[in-house]
Amino acid sequence: MDHYEEESLARKAVRGDRDALALLWDTLTPKLFGYLINTLRNRALAEDIVQTTWLRAIEGLPRFQNRGKGLRPWLFAIARNECRRHWRTAPREVPLDPLTHDGGEGAESLRDTRLIVEQALQKLSEDDRELLRLRYIADLKTADIARVLHINFVTVRVRLHRALTRARIALTSQKP
Amino acid sequence: MNHTPRSIHTILAEWGRANHALPPNNDALKAAILNTASITKGEKLLRHFSFLPWLSFTLTGLAAATLFLAPTAQYLSPLTYSSAPRVTEEKIRSVYPEPRPYPGTPITDRREFLKTYYNATLRTRRIMDLTRRVQTVVRGFGGRVDATTAAEKFGYVAFAVPSNRFESFSREIRSLAPGRFIVEETRAENLLPQKRSIEEQEAYIKKTLAELNADRDKTITAHTQTIRSLQSRIASANSEIARLHAEVTDNPQRKAEIAARVKELTGLVGTLESSLARENTAHANRLAEINAEIRANETALEGVRAQDKELMDTVATVEGHISVAWISILEIIRLYVPLYWLAALFGLGAIAAFVVNRRRSRLITL
User: Fold this and answer.
1) Least CA distance to A36: which residue of chain B?
2) Where is B227: in which H helix or E strand?
């Protein structure tokens, strides 16, 4: 679903179309929940923040002016703000061992890939991991990541490139 | 594992896809979110009013501006727009004598000699037209236009109309503009003190004239008597002189007596004639003085009567002026809606816009 489809559904949702809102939920929630799981490392907390994020999004939806920038970056920006709000009152979760992390569903090969990558990504900085989460879990484009992080588009591209390089090195070093 | 850049992208894309997951209570969460997103029909309508915050600011500004202007709103005074001289009490005093006796007039005299002044100010956006109509009304009621001015933003008509047609005249003037657009002032002054003064002066002059005429008659009578007496004595002396001249005697003593007597009588006649002449002269002088006084008083009486007539004419005339002033749209609004009411309306509108906007921002209740 591209930005314009998301915006069209958002406009319908504002006008009271529950089906449009349901479709947005079905499209965005897997990515949102996956992002939050990977960020917070706590399924229950991630579930709470998914709910809070959606409630805030619905509350602000009438005021949201798309202008071709898409709903997803805005939604993930809300999610990031909710995470920061949570961390202001509670310490960050200790990164857990991906081998024992209660992973999501999916094919075993995907789970294996995820575990391997999780292990490799533990060696990266939190900023790099955040970039990679937004790029590959949230499935945001570079321009969208720039809007979410409130930094320059070129800066995002450079940092993303460096993060990928470091991830590749980390994965390579894990090669048995 | 192939870790080429393309492969790392692929690996991470797989990793991202692998992280995609729905919450365990996805259906319940979804249902709860959808339920809380219920939007009423009325609230849908409110959603369209995104201009409400600006409307609220604008109305607040208008309310403040209106309150700032409000204290200066005043009804007009006809004097405000009048630059022409008005009939004042000083003019009355200069025409009519000071009222006597001082002070005031006794309440027992309940006569009224009301001098009425009428001023009006008409507000309009058609100055020339209304000024012409005012002049027409003045002349139509038997009045007189004493002065007139007509400009783009101001008109002026000074007039005089008969007092017995004043009520109709003022009614016609009021019909030229709606009630809120006209301010009238009617003043009336009782000229009874002046009237009483005139009457007192007239009475005094008449009394003086009567006395002077009596004096004149007495003078003439006295003079006549005096003349008659003198003439009688002169005639008597002349008669005796004639008799003595007619007496013929040879008696030198008698002749001497006759001559002496004739001489004496001649002297007496001369004296009497001198007295007669003096009497005539004195009488003429006295009579001239009296006549002069009589004429002066008669002139004064005419003057007082003229004053009385003028006073009555003044009472019978209503004088004044009518100003015609241009009015702006804002002033028209202020005439119908006092500015503090307007400020209150703007304030209420601002509050209503604020409340509606707050409701609009809570369209989706939690």
Assistant:
1) B19
2) helix B192-246
Q: What is the mean pLDDT of residues A75-102?
A: 73
Percentage of residues in chain B with pLDDT exceeding 70?
83
Q: In a 3-state reduction of DSSP, which class is residue B160? A: strand
Residue B86 has pLDDT above 70, yes or no: no
Whether the pLDDT of residue B286 is over 50: the answer is: yes
B123 bridge partner residues? B325
Name the strand (E) or helix (H) holding A170: helix A153-173
Q: Calculate the alpha carbon distances from B149 to A106, B20, B106, B113, B125 in Å.
A: 99, 91, 43, 31, 16
Residue A157 token pair: 């591209």
Instruction: Tell me what pLDDT residue B41 has.
Output: 41
CB contact under 8 A, B364 and A58: yes
Tokens read off for A169: 């090195």
Peptide bond into B97 cis (omega under 30): no
Instruction: For residue A155, give the nearest of A167, A146, A165, A168 by alpha carbon.
Output: A146
Given an 8 Å threshold on Cβ–Cβ distance, is B36 in contact with A58? yes
Distance CA(B272)–CA(B230), nearest Å, equals 6
Phi/psi at B207 (nearest 5 deg)?
-65, -45
Strand partners, B117: B187, B319
> Looking at residues B106-122, what average pLDDT do you find?
90
Residue B317 main-chain phi, psi, to 5 deg: -125, 135
Cβ count near A122 (within 10 Å): 13
Please name the residues between 9 and 38 in chain B that touch chain A, using a CB distance below 8 Å: 9, 11-26, 29-30, 32-34, 36-38
Give burial (CB, 10 Å; 0-12/13-18/19+) of B60: middle
- Rounded to 10 degrees, the C-alpha dihedral B39/B42/B48/B51 comes to -120
Q: What is the pLDDT of residue B1?
A: 43
Residue B348, min C-alpha distance to chain A (Å): 25
Rounded to an integer, the average pLDDT of B66-86 is 50
Interface contact flag, A114 B364, Cβ < 8 Å: no
Separation between Cα atoms, residue B347 and residue B364, nearest integer Å: 28
B91 Ramachandran zone, left/alpha/beta (phi>0; psi -120 to 50) = alpha
pTM of the shown model: 0.44
Q: What span, in angstroms and rounded, lies between the C-alpha atoms of B162 and B145?
A: 12
Taking the C-alpha atoms of residue B171 and residue A83, their distance in angstroms, rounded to an integer, is 82
Tell me the sheet residues that pair with B326: B124
Mean of the per-residue pLDDT values of chain B = 83
In this structure, is the dihedral angle defined by the CA atoms of residues A127, A128, A133 and A135, taken in order, positive or negative?
Answer: positive
Q: Is A129 left (phi over 0), alpha (psi -120 to 50) or beta?
A: alpha
